[in-house]
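Notes to self after the call with IL:
- keep both proteins in one doc
- input above output, always
- annotate only the second one for now

Protein 1:
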Amino acid sequence: MNRRELAQMIDHAALAPEATWSDVDRLVAQGLELGVHGVCVAPSFLPLDAQGLTVVTVVAFPSGAHYPEIKAAEAARAAADGAQEVDMVMNLGRAKAAEWSLVGAEIAAVRTGLPESVALKVIIESAALSDAQIVAACWAAEDAGANWIKTSTGFHPAGGATPHAVDLIARTVRGRLGVKASGGIRTLADARALVSAGATRLGTSHTAAIVAELGE
């Protein structure tokens, strides 16, 4: 990958709870300078003039332990406020308990409330799941109409994206869904390893440092 190709795979993120409008303004300016795919912000920063970059937001972030109808309403409001992609956090407790019909119903409720043009990514928090649970989460999300599987919020103590999890997700969805790796991506080596494993999008707040390693 060259610098431009890598940047175009990145959702440049500012999701810290203490983020301000000044931080988001800097995020957009930096994203434009670096040539990223999109910027990922909390829904409270919508509507957002991203000046041509894709506007990505998060729903039920970071715990995922919300009423399904609240997730659906938050996603619908975000889309109405201009979000072009929605990254929703799956109910991790339901997944750990193998309540896959409930997991799927929740994802379907969010998908139903979104315009077809808005991509839905499901954050499965892969570091907290077994391999079998990762596979089952992918199946549930796909059956419910999701467009992408995303590894992590980056806020769970179990950790973020790993090449192993990305490879497992990619082999499970087999190109039918996108694969977004996020959480703990800080270096060019991290990014390359995840792309080699099958990631088709990266989410990180360390974009500038990663892209800088490729030079001009």
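Protein 2 (the one to annotate):
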Amino acid sequence: MVKRVSLSDAECPMARSLDGIGDWWSLLIVRDAFDGVRRFGEFQKSLGISKGILARRLQGLVALGVLTMTSASDGSAWQDYVLTSKGEALFPVIVALRQWGEAFCYRPGEPHSELVDRKKGKSLAPLVVRDADGEIIQMRDTVVKKLALSSKDY
């Protein structure tokens, strides 16, 4: 079995992000939390995931500060998992993955779930990337400015 390499010290923000939330179970847990799932058993039922994997992923998302554990909202002895502001900031990521999946992972006309505006009941407009001035930009309009290597990096 290949040992997983930590990317927590990587210079690339994407690599660091994927180190914490990049596996599919973690992103599906976050998706379910956006849909209002709060309890361990509810996550397990929704995802069909083993208790051990779910426990590890929830523990990791809590340690990362994406979820927090709170006393159950119904006053029972259970704990709820609630998105933090850091977790809520993943909303555009979840929407972008959903929209990509809708565009490229279904045959034309194939039914799938849909994310709609709660007030209007309408589909969301496709996400776009904008520059600091608000102009829409494409991949070809960007470049990654890498950190300069120091002598200790050689």
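Annotation: The two ends are 30 Å apart (CA to CA). The longest helix spans residues 51-64.
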